[in-house]
Amino acid sequence: MDTPPLLNETHDPSLKSWVESANDPATDFPIQNLPLGAFVMEHDGHRHAHLAVAIGDQVLDITSLAEAGYFQNDPDEEVRAIGRLPAWNAAMSVPGFIEKMRRRLQSFLRADGSGGQSARRLRSKVLRPIAETPLIRPAMNFNYTDFYASIHHATNVGTMFRPDNALLPNYKWVPIGYHGRASSIIPSGVEIRRPSGQTKADDAAAPVFGPCKMLDYELEVGVLVGASNRMGEPVSMGRADHHIAGLCLVNDWSARDMQKWEYQPLGPFLAKNFATTVSPWIVTREALAPFRCAAYKRPDGDPQPLEYLRDENNEQWGGFDITLEVHLISKSMREQNLPPLRVSRGSFRDMYWTFAQMIVHHTSNGCNLQPGDLLASGTVSGTSPDSRGCLLERTWEGTGKPRKPIELPTGEKRTFLEDGDEVVMTDWCEGGAGGHRRIGFGECRGTIASANA
Amino acid sequence: MDTPPLLNETHDPSLKSWVESANDPATDFPIQNLPLGAFVMEHDGHRHAHLAVAIGDQVLDITSLAEAGYFQNDPDEEVRAIGRLPAWNAAMSVPGFIEKMRRRLQSFLRADGSGGQSARRLRSKVLRPIAETPLIRPAMNFNYTDFYASIHHATNVGTMFRPDNALLPNYKWVPIGYHGRASSIIPSGVEIRRPSGQTKADDAAAPVFGPCKMLDYELEVGVLVGASNRMGEPVSMGRADHHIAGLCLVNDWSARDMQKWEYQPLGPFLAKNFATTVSPWIVTREALAPFRCAAYKRPDGDPQPLEYLRDENNEQWGGFDITLEVHLISKSMREQNLPPLRVSRGSFRDMYWTFAQMIVHHTSNGCNLQPGDLLASGTVSGTSPDSRGCLLERTWEGTGKPRKPIELPTGEKRTFLEDGDEVVMTDWCEGGAGGHRRIGFGECRGTIASANA
Predict the structure, then answer these.
(1) In angstroms, rounded to a whole number, what is the distance separating the alpha carbons of residues B37 and B104?
(2) A107, A116, A104, A110: which is closest to A51 by C-alpha?
(3) What is the ipTM of this complex?
(4) Could you give the residue ranges of the DSSP H alpha helices within B191-309?
(5) Residue of A nearest to B274 (CA)
(6) pLDDT of A253-306, one tens digit each?
(7) Chain B window 319-348: which residues touch A at a Cβ cutoff of 8 Å?
(8) Which helix (H) or strand (E) holds B67?
């Protein structure tokens, strides 16, 4: 395949929208993006979920567009039914649905659109500012799997937790993953209560129970599964990409001191399951087509993946060229109206395994994925210190050396997160050969509240 | 507290039912049990889920009982609404609901019942033989956590996987658990396809991908969560038991050769998530009241649990006195009409941690449990070889010694499961001081199908 999958005229950078803010070169949400979201609307005294896409600084209310009859003569049943859905799960499980919806919505939103007078009259009724919209999770995430796909992250953390045995022998063969907790996945903006738990100092005879003292974020990219596979029926490399509905940002909050004491032999549990924040928009695989890139090139000496994880097309286009940033704002910074401090910038090109390989591995034993399942990449870290996606790595200078805190503009120092700190993650795709429009993910935010008394 | 929680006149062993099979002393389902179940019924060309309880060898169809108006004048709104529910989740999350429903149903089912003529007329319409009823999962299990609460199991497996480091230092402090996969929880009777995956021989340079060669069962008891807790709000020991709706049997199928290669550092993943079988009936906490017992008595020298995991009432009544058995039937045994072979018999009294402690630990960091969540105990193994709840332990005779296969009556031998083998788990409570009726769990069955070609 010479061009990335799904690249077509919907990515034409000259396409403009009558929503002026969508034409701003700096927006995350041009007409070429149209990420899937949802929000809560009160009517008839009840709270209803409305489906939406983002366009510039506005939300396009798809449920209201459907209720106004905009899709009523559509040839596709799934498109006609969209107004009745409480979440994107069912729709995004239908092959080809997102591409169809993308074209319908571009036709409604484009500046040169010929939707006629009735479409024009609808415009004011179906737009509302993102900033004033109570966004919720766009899809129900029934299952959550967290991978460990950055070899730089695995090597750094391995060195800290197991100095003699940093990168385990299975790492270059197995896309390591484990199950996370679906019930505590929360949308961007919900406060995170500092967890309490057992920790044990190396020189102590017994553990103690109390508030976490090494609270951390983890910068990750998540896949939302579209089409499911039946139990007992693995997904092949040739089909894996088709199971990706889209991507979002994930902050896999982590209690490092609790993790160290609890994680053997069955893996992280309470150190992770108190909260996982996801960004409110699913940036579709269709929107990301211009930013597909080669999979990570394994250095000489590394083994090639086993046959079931290998595919030429994956080598050429299995990656996503995404830039990721983490920003920090302390309570004092907020009070002094200081801007967030950028703590790191990394690239998703650096991941050792692609999402396609993670999907194939996950289903290789017959495990069934369901629409809306969240598969997160694991912490995205690169080779340079400022590309490390969590504080555990970011403030680490090597075995035996003291941690080097991050200095905030207020003079405060951070080795791990303090109460009142807000973490803001952002990521986006831009540049490349075709002069394509920037495709952004929006923000993934969370503020730390103090522990239960 | 001098008597177990919830013990009352609904456990009176002299209570009899007009359903004659329920009065058989050997039945799992006397009128004192009434476990929660569900089945599929076709009408109007659609498949509908009906709620049910088991009584003797019959299913009492609660949805039809409700549709016939039996609950229409009930003072409790939840009882009146029961006919509209697709699963038990919402109902069993309401405090006190199960006790109320238990009394309503006993009054309908008891031999000396005074339900009047109309109730008598309903009898034939709402009963159907269990053997002819397509049972489904009684509750949606949105989240699944698997614990590791048998110290005997942890010690045996630890010795095999880590000869120098069998029982890790955290075991006696932390009720170790990890997240399982909710999407692949299946009801009793559904076939299990042998998984494929990566395995690596100790002396091989590289892993290979292929069908699992060490397929195993794990005998476990599961809690179905009733009342939820809000995110950020831990459950205390004094309240933990109230979050248990009931118990079921769990077979946590395991691919041992895959597990050994993949499980470090983040825990078991593909070795477990291809299938987990649950028994079709939720035996309620209310029904189990006569069989509550003291928590495991820690031997001298073991530490006491930390304060947040300690409670006098838990010490006295936190346990469940359940006997558990595993039976095996090979394809040849089935063809020769031979009865199943009992492979093990164990007791749930031997568990190091109680379910109350598991619930408190799970929520101690603020993690939210949801109605219908499944918390499994981990493999139930005792001290004697014939009380070990999985083949990994059952056919193990010690480090460096060859495994000792189980001999089947056909002359076949089993170290691990072969294609066509069926595993049948059963468990029950009986005996004790009050002459209480036996309370059984029914069966948890699964047959191994061959791997994908």
Answers:
(1) 16
(2) A104
(3) 0.96
(4) 237-240, 256-262
(5) A367
(6) 999 999 999 999 999 999 999 999 999 999 999 999 999 999 999 999 999 999
(7) none
(8) helix B62-67
